[in-house]
Amino acid sequence: MSETPEQRKERLAQQAIDGAKAAIEYRAKQDAVLRRTAQLRAERLAREDTQRDAPKAKGKASRQPVTEPAASDYQAADRS
Fold first, then answer.
1. Which of helix, strand or coil describes residue 13?
2. What is the pLDDT of residues 47-65, one digit of tens each?
């Protein structure tokens, strides 16, 4: 069965409407992704600025070196 010219016209009109709706939805999703990406980037840059301005911990270098007690410490303990 072939479609009548009126049916074809209706089908093409509906396809145009559906296409326009799909394009609007696509653009809305794309805009949402771009806004979210910009927000996350701003948060990351702010966090990096805060970390850069904060004093850095020295890590392992700041630990006290482990030293063996001096012989005089043992002698003092024996006298007590």
1. helix
2. 999 988 877 666 555 566 6
> Tokens 């966090």, residue?
47
For 25, what's the count of Cα atoms within 13 Å in the CB-facing half-sphere? 6
Count of all residues that appear for the chain in the document: 80
Q: Produce one character per residue of 37-76: b if its CB has 16 or more CB atoms within 10 Å, e if not.
A: eeeeeeeeeeeeeeeeeeeeeeeeeeeeeeeeeeeeeeee
Q: Is the pTM of this model over 0.85?
A: no
Question: Domain coordinates of the chain in residue numbers?
Answer: 21-54
**Contacts of residue 74, Cβ cutoff 8 Å, sequence gap at least 6:** none
